[in-house]
Structures are given as C-alpha cells and as structure tokens.
Amino acid sequence: MKTFIKLLLLVAVFSANAQNSISGKITDNNNNPLSEVGIYAQEIHKGTTTNEDGTYVIKNIPNGKLKITFTYLGYKSVTKTIVITSKNEILNIQLEDSSFEMDEIIISTPFNKLQSDNVMKVERLSAESIKKMGATTLAEGITNIAGVSQISTGSSIGKPVIRGLSGNRVLVYTQGIRLENQQFGGEHGLGINDAGISSVEVIKGPASLLYGSDALGGVLYLNPERFASENQKEINFSQKYFSNTLGSNTSVGLKTSKENWKFLARGTYASHSDYTIPTDERVTNTRFNEKDFKTGIAYSKNKFTSEIRYNFNNSQLGLTEGIADQSTSKSLLEPYQVIDNHILSAHNHIFFGNSKLDIDLGYTFNDRQEFEEHEEHDDGEEDEEHEEHEEAALRMKLKTYSYNAKYHFPKTGNFEILSGVQGLHQTNTNFGEEILIPNAIINDFGIFTTANYAWNKSTLQAGIRFDNRNISTESHEVAHEDEIHVFNAIDKSFNSFTTSLGFKTSFTDFFTTRINLATGFRAPNLAELTSNGVHHGTNRFEEGNNNLSNEKNTQIDVSLEYKTEHFEFFANGFYNHLNDYIFLNPTGEIEDENPVYTYVQENAKLYGGEFGFHLHPHPIDWLHLESTFETVTGKQSSGDYLPLIPANTWKNTFRTEFNIKNWLQKGYTSLSLQSTFNQNNVSVFETETPSYNLVNLGFGGDVVLGKTTFTTSISVNNLFDKEYINHLSRLKADGILNQGRNIVVGVNFVL
C-alpha cells in the first residue's frame, strides 16, 4: 500500500514549465454575446464561464491536442478539438438555439465524444435530475433511465439491473476505476453516496472490449463532481428531508481553484428510520445510517495533468426479517451489516504533441461485516440493539489494486486509434466465524485496441481485446450445526477474446441510426465457484460449482433517433444471446434446515428495447411532454424464463419550465405516471407480480432573496400511497410491500 501511494504522489508532482492560453468570444446566431456559457476541458480538469461581453480565457494549457466543450442552457453544445501551436490560441464559437437538453461529453466511451457524435448509444443522467426525483439512494435514482432498474432490499440496498442483467454482469466505475465491493451478494448494494456525483452514464450492452470481465451486461459509470473554475472558491451546503423514513441527508462541500492546483472536499451524513408501507406499518429494521467523505486534488501544467481522489463510505444497514416491532428509532437491530469502503484513484494525462497517454491507478478496500442476532440470556430476554464490542459473525476484507493505461495515437485525417492494457490484483480474506467464500487471490490482465473512422455524416468504430483471469483459493473446513462444510482449493485461469463493431450515420439533419454488434464475457465469480454453506441473506444453502466456464454473449443493438427543434423520437432494440449463462437452481434437498441451491449453466437469450418521445411544442416553450416504454424478456434454451427480469414499464411525464419575476429562476413543475405491467414471465422458483400505477409530483427552482440565492426542490413519490410490490424486490417472497408515499424536501446553498 505504501509503495502504491508513493507512486501516486510521484505521478502527481511531475510537471514542466510552458504557459499557454486559449481565449475567445461566444455569441449566438445574431452575433450577440452570451454570458455564463460553461467552458470545460475534461482532460485537464479546467473550466470557466464567459463574462458579460461573451469573452473567456483559460490559462496554463498544455501543448498538444485538447478537447473543449461549450454548453449553455437553450443552445446546442459544441465540442472543439484544438491543437496548441502558439502561446495564445484564439477560439471564437457561435452557438445555435436548441429546445432540448444540452449535449454532453460522454466519458465512459473510448474517444470521449459528444453523445450526438458517439457510435455507441450511452444514456446519461445528471445529478440535478436525480435530486429532482427525490430518490433515497443513488441506485434508486438511476432507475429513471429507460432500460435500467434495481434489485432492492428495502429502501437502503439497491443493485443496478441493465436490460435484465445484474450482479457481476454489470460493472460499476467510479473515479475512473472499477468498484469492487463483494458485489456477488444479492443484499450487497453500491456503497456509493450520490453526493459528490455529477452525472451517471449507462452503457446498455456488452462493454468487455473497454472494461474486461464483468462488463458483459453493461457499465454504470459514475462521474465525480467537477473542481471549481480557475481562481474561484465555493462552499456548498445541501439538506434533504424524507417524510416516509423520517430521514435526512446533509452534505457540505468546499472547492477552491488556482491556475495549477485545484482542491475539493465533501462530507455527507444520512440517517433513516424503517420505511413505511401504505398500510401505515413500518418494515422492521430497514433503517440505515451512512457517512461519506470525498476529497480530490488536481494539478496541471504544460504536458501533464493529474487528478487524485479519495472516497470513504461507512454504511450501517439493517437486514429486515419482516414486520414486527414498530419504531421510529434509527439505531440498528440485529441482523445488520457494517461496511467500510475506501476508494483511492489517480487519473493522469501525459501529452505528446498530437498524441496522449492516459494512466489510471486505483486502490479499493472493502471491509464487510455482518452481525447476527444475540442468543437469549438465562432470564429469557434477548438483546435487540447491537453492542460495540460484539464481533461480526461474517467478515470479509477485499483489497483491489487496479491499473488502466491507454495510448491515443496521433489522429490521421478522420482516423483515430487507441490501444491499452488493463488489470487488477485482488485478495479476499475472511476474519469471521462464518465463511461464504474462501480466502482467494485474483489477477486480471487485458490488452485491447479500438479504432474510429468518420466520413461525411457517418462513423465506423471497431475493436478487439484479449483477457486472462486467474483465480486461486485456499482450502477451508467450516463446522456449522455439527456439519463440516469443505471449501476445496482451486487454481483456475479463464481466457477470452472479445470484439465490437459499430456504425452510426445520419441520413438527414434530423434522422440518425446506430447499429452495434459486440461480444462480451464474464469469468465465474468466487461465490459461483466455491460456495458451500447457508447464505442467510437469501435463506438458502448454496453450493458452488468449480467446473463452471466463462459466460459469453453476443448482442446486437439498433438505435433510431429522429430529432427536430421541437420533437424527438427514439427507438432502441436489442437481442442478446448468452452462452453458458450461470444461475442458481434448486436441487430439492434440504441442508441445515434450508433448501439447497447449486450453480448450473445453460444457454439463454434476452431481447427487448426502449421506445419514447419528447415533445416541446412551439410557441409554448415552457411545456415538455416525455414518454418512454421499456421491455425485456429473458429465456433459457430450455424455454424456461430467467429470474429477476423486470416487468414492462411505461413512464409519462408532463413538465413545465418557467421564471417568476426576479425571485424564482429556472423554476419547474413535473407530474409523472409510471405504469408497471404484470410480470407473468417468471422462472420456476418465482411468483407472478401484478401490475400497478404510481403518480409522482415535483416542484422547484432557484429562489432569489436579495443577494441570497438557493436551490429548492419538493417531490412527492407514490402520491396516492399505492400498495404494490416490485418484481425485483427481495422482500417480495415475504409479501412485504414497497414504500408508500414519500415527500422529499431539498435545499441547496452555494456561498
């Protein structure tokens, strides 16, 4: 660990001495200057805004090729690639009107283009949009993206599901590195607080070419908040209140920036009671508390930039066993989890004229503890609230060192190419009496190359990759209720080639189509290979299978978009064929008073899509009508349905935007209806789920009182307190309803 930190510090202080700048003027179609236009260079973490006369300047720019984005509400975003050839470059930009949302640079794809220029369709959701939804957790917030849902355990634990695939099939990236937190478990959530997240990007489909194993189903890419603009300082305070859980979320952030150095820090504390269902009962021990701290420092000068970030998250999560004692206490009952998650990353760019080298280094440390119920005392009483000195029955420590290096070759005409290597070294160590998975060492190595060629209104992108994963474990014997559970040692290697081919073209200025064909793979995880015992979170005895092979898939995506000034329509369809899909299957046996499940493999397929439109009629500029429909079907080759496939959903939102004199700016109201259909296509050990409709309200904007401005938001989710159970709720088997009406009030001050 010390060696790794020294390496990060060594990279951070590397620098040179030249001073370059970019300046210019931003105007509209009529050559009128635009003030407060956002200007940002992602690669060097530098940004600014235009003055009242539309002028701007960014100093201390490195030599070589640089991509700069210009964004302004109500105008089309523009990205320009400029090669610095003099000390003072002049770049004037004219922005065109646009009635729709600003186009943004997509970070999760290889060439970091605007979404409108990307070959791969990537969905993006801003942090501002998540706040307006009134979501309790980040996992809940991203379900507003069509094709994305969550497997939930109460209101505190959520796992992302992309087009019916979840768990280790969906890779999560944060701070530019992969998040590793024992994600194989059904009750293991993200462990990331939404405070300090600027946006979320979702790749829906195999992304193994860019990210290796575990990206077979897609990627959830979390972009951290930006540093302050040059020579600026900002203090931010936000507070949210949740009526359903009597919960609160408090966050305080500080940003400061100079020409070469930038710094930020943010602390967040959240606390919630048991959630309330529409029958006015609380689901016992769904309460949770969370502490989160994020900090970062960035340095840039001439040919080098570096960004180092650190995130510590402590989550204390109650594990419910049903509806029992009614309480508004926020102190946990047993059983419960305590999870510490440390994420340290270094994101670096080295410029060589027209080429560039990106180096990402990461370290994550996940300490997961689970505390079981106390045994009864001699007097028959039982302790309910946990004691600090109690040792965890289950404790796993997971350490992951990761690296990712990508070289962007000099651009030749319209041809771009990059090559890279990725890998990780991971260790899992057990400290508790119970063992779910054995002590293990995992090593990954991957090498890839991808190219992009653009001509006229068309773009072609292709790539190939090779990966190797080695898994070695220790042998263990665990005694449980007079039974000896044996974990045999294994030493296995898994190899795979993956490829991708994508094509984008615009037949007219309004109509764009994308076709992508990609393969992906996933090596079996430790739980699937080695489990041999009772998993109390799922109430079953799980047996691993060390004969499992790689999962492999081939997916074709077709995306059609029609976009004019006042109307947008999209249709996304996909077909995903999976070879050797791994899933749990009941054996019919009973062991340790629990049903026995074992991991098996069978070919499978998933197909479906997302469809929708956005209407912004002229001349009613304040009105928006948005509608999306999403569907996915998953089947085994035997004809049986796959488990945990979300039901078809239709979402309709009526939204207005307005200003009220000088005291309410960027105001909005929203009324949405979410219709979830029956889920009758269920696996052999699932039950069908009935349909339901939820109505949500939202209101907010920037309130101006004298010289003080603050942002406020009010949302009412499940307005009519509808009784329902989501098909992907892990509490569904016990007949426990999802959350009832929840009023969320938020306020945000920038000092």
CATH topology of the largest domain: Maltoporin, Chain A
Sheet/helix structural class: mainly beta
- Using the 3D structure, state the CATH architecture of the largest domain: Beta Barrel
* CATH superfamily caption of the largest domain: TonB-dependent receptor, beta-barrel domain
In DSSP terms (H or I, runs of 4 or more residues), the helix count works out at 5
Q: Identify the quaternary structure here.
A: single chain
**Chain-averaged pLDDT:** 88
Counted beta strands: 41
Please state the overall shape, judged from the principal axes of the Cα atoms: globular
Helix content: under 10%
Q: Flag low-confidence runs.
A: 3-18, 376-388
How much strand?
over 45%
Outline the biggest β-sheet: 22 strands, antiparallel, barrel
The first-to-last residue Cα distance is 37 Å
Gyration radius over CA: 26 Å
Kindly give the count of domains: 2
Q: What is the CATH first-level class name of the largest domain?
A: Mainly Beta
